[in-house]
Design brief:
This protein is α+β, with helices and mostly antiparallel strands. It contains 8 helices and 9 strands. The longest helix is centred in the last third of the chain and has 17 residues. It starts with 21 loop residues before the first helix and ends in a 26-residue tail after the last helix. The mean pLDDT is 91.
């Protein structure tokens, strides 16, 4: 992808990976080429409100804070993502807990707007094997296991449209596979079984929709996501060689 004309002649560096690395490995790829004390990993469609970036950067100077984020809102003003929590048994994340303190500790923050220290990036980094979704939950979870704090800065706010990346049929496969992977990595066997039942609860409704709309990819993607979820776990933090895997069954667009 060529550098946009708007960035020509600016101080912005434009780097393109050799292949589609997904979100996590894409962040690793970019940050590894520009060493810094602090990093901001952002979706291109996030609009920050006044001082939000500087407030998050300052929060990383607080002793023990390794990852932080602003409170993210939909364009209509409703909360989209803030103090993420994770259920103990299922390991299922929930993003929409409002911050109760100026600096509120939490389990994870959204990757749409995630700030982290150099030490967190270098020692923990993103797990690119997820490819699409769960990378933000995973890095925060491992950071907390390593003793770092994950926080939301309530005075730092930003706006983000809904589902601009996770749209259409593309995320369905990862919405089944990745929760099971995460639960198998950090939970119990019985918890992973329960997680599997939780994520496939929508299969009957999706099957009926496929029949009614005379389509097939959605149910097929769920099926393959389930198989992959209980297949061999990746042994590295790199994306699988044939990612995006759903491109085997559907047309995959980069937008």
């Amino acid at each position: 992808m060529d550098c946009p004309d708007e960035l020509s002649g600016t101080d912005v560096s434009w780097v393109v990976p050799p292949r589609n690395l997904g979100f996590g490995s894409g962040c690793n790829f970019g940050a590894s080429r520009f060493p810094a004390r602090k990093y901001a990993f952002l979706n291109a469609d996030v609009a920050f409100h006044s001082s939000a970036v500087s407030l998050c950067m300052d929060a990383l100077d607080i002793p023990g804070v390794g990852i932080c984020a602003p409170a993210l809102y939909f364009p209509d003003g409703n909360l989209q993502s803030a103090c993420g929590s994770v259920s103990k048994t299922l390991k299922i994340p929930r993003p929409d807990n409002a911050p109760s303190q100026p600096i509120s500790e939490c389990d994870w923050v959204t990757g749409a707007s995630l700030f982290c220290r150099q030490e967190v990036f270098e020692s923990i980094g993103f797990d690119g094997s997820y490819f699409l979704s769960y990378e933000d939950l995973d890095i925060a979870y491992r950071a907390k296991l390593a003793g770092w704090k994950v926080v939301v800065v309530s005075a730092a706010t930003a706006t983000h449209p809904s589902r601009t990346t996770l749209n259409g049929a593309r995320p369905i496969y990862y919405g089944i596979r990745n929760p099971i992977w995460f639960s198998r990595r950090y939970g119990t066997f019985l918890g992973s079984v329960a997680t599997t039942f939780y994520v496939v609860r929508k299969v009957p409704r999706v099957m009926m929709a496929d029949i009614a709309k005379r389509r097939s990819p959605h149910t097929r993607l769920m099926y393959h996501g389930l198989l992959a979820g209980w297949g061999s776990l990746p042994t590295t933090k790199e994306p699988l060689p044939d990612e995006p895997v759903p491109s085997r069954w559907i047309e995959w667009e980069s937008s």
